[in-house]
């Protein structure tokens, strides 16, 4: 229960909590992978323990330098990014960042990617081993990013065809006892089918949507702005698509949905919850407002008071 | 929120923005600015031109949607500033040269104030701007139009050289620094890099810079780097 201060109208008690696979989120505002580092940078600007959770920068088994050339380009109401999963690797994360995560009072989610089946499984095993050693004091959940290119399948992402992703989800599920959410790509052939597969394979939740594949051409240089040709579109531009996909998936699966895509206001959060999301993630909005998490929570509580909503359970999935 | 004092056009597409308020910052640090609500989504990183006495100044070149909106600001308008961010130029002693090319002169005025007695070299492809602002602080002020300003700088004469300018100029400065070191000079060359940014505080990694010891963040580890550390890919 969140106790609203005396200055708030009615001094109402609001329930913003949600549980996913035994993990309690104190509120539905989780910071999205890739936009929030491991939380430390933003902790200088507001108390990140206010947040429902943090999904850390995407990790791979081995360190990655990421893509060369331009990595970001602004678009109408959004942005394209081509970071290419620059990250220190799972082992370095566990070694250097987990001590900080142990101090946090918010749900800590490790986002795990990989270019081969074996790397994903080895990464998950390493995270599990560390969690066992620490007594789960640093990592509460794994978010499996299946949007990475599958090296063996000629670079086609694992997350496009349900049949390609099934074995991966099954193997990672076997490799870890930690709560597992699978992060789905909007580029999947059938995202609801993909989510259903995740449920069948024992995932505890699904996170959606990842960025939408997009492009920007430099007309003077007559080439793509990005060395990698295509890049991932995020921001308010993709919100209607993300919301529709969360809604479609919510109609097909029983497991909780971590919904995201272009959220930049408290009413956006409410929309995702009404579409069926258990909690939401906020990404690009962090770049529009450095204190995004703090401001969204303030506005969310205000909205709940105005609309006489005591608990988000009252409105979850009502549309 | 800051309030615009003035927003003067200095040359073709170059503006001098003055904002009132008690802001701080070190040489070579920057602020993330936005003069709009939600869109464009990203704030714009601008280095500190000068700061103190109840105001902060920026120089910017109009290159796109965001800077076009900056150009429309008039006195009294509000503008949002977050910062100061980044790791700037070091507070050095000894013989110092400041070398700026075009809009790259922006962070050097504050340096010249903090390091009085330095030599200042300013190069422009066409119309020069803000050169007189450096005169009170510079021991020597050298202005070049249409040439290569780095050609005027004898690297062996200095202990520290701060460089900010277009990409080819930074690469050339790196090479001159290496050549000087080979000839026995102990000059330290510092480059202020420019990169597209999103978060501005080291969280999103879109402004990553290749360095000898791996990927570094232009916004948090930089924008100022020792020239010898940077790997230029093009």
Structure, described:
The complex is a heterodimer of chains A (319) and B (234). With 319 residues, chain A is an alpha/beta fold. In chain A, 31% of the residues lie in helices and 19% in strands. Chain A is built from ten helices and 18 strands. Chain A has helices at residues 40-43, 90-96, 98-102, 117-134, 162-175, 191-200, 239-250, 266-274, 285-288, 292-306; strands at residues 2-3, 13-14, 18-20, 23-25, 29-31, 53-55, 72-75, 78-81, 107-112, 141-145, 180-183, 205-208, 212-214, 217-218, 223-224, 231-234, 257-260, 279-282. Mean pLDDT of chain A is 94; it is low at 1-11. Chain B is mostly beta strands. Chain B has three helices and 15 strands. Chain B has helices at 65-71, 108-114, 167-182; strands at residues 2-11, 14-20, 30-34, 44-47, 50-52, 55-61, 78-85, 96-101, 119-124, 140-145, 160-164, 188-192, 208-211, 214-217, 224-226. Chains A and B meet through strand 7, strand 8 and helix 9 of A and loops of B. Chain B: Keywords: 2Fe-2S, Electron transport, FAD, Flavoprotein, Iron, Iron-sulfur, Metal-binding, Transport.
Which quaternary structure do these chains form?
heterodimer
Helix content of chain A: 25-40%
Q: Which pair of chains forms the biggest interface, and how many residues does each contribute?
A: A-B, 33 and 26 residues
- Average pLDDT metric of chain A: 94
Distance between the termini of chain A: 25 Å
Q: Which structural category do the helix and sheet elements of chain B fall into?
A: mainly beta
Secondary structure tally: strands of chain B:
15
Order of helices and strands of chain B: EEEEEEHEEHEEEHEEEE
Catalytic activity (chain A): (S)-dihydroorotate + A = orotate + AH2
Family (chain A): Belongs to the dihydroorotate dehydrogenase family. Type 1 subfamily.
Binding site for FMN (chain A): 33, 57-58, 111, 145, 183, 209, 235, 261-262, 283-284
EC number (chain A): 1.3.-.-
Could you give a quick summary of the protein structure above?
The complex is a heterodimer of chains A (319) and B (234). By secondary structure, chain A is an alpha/beta fold.
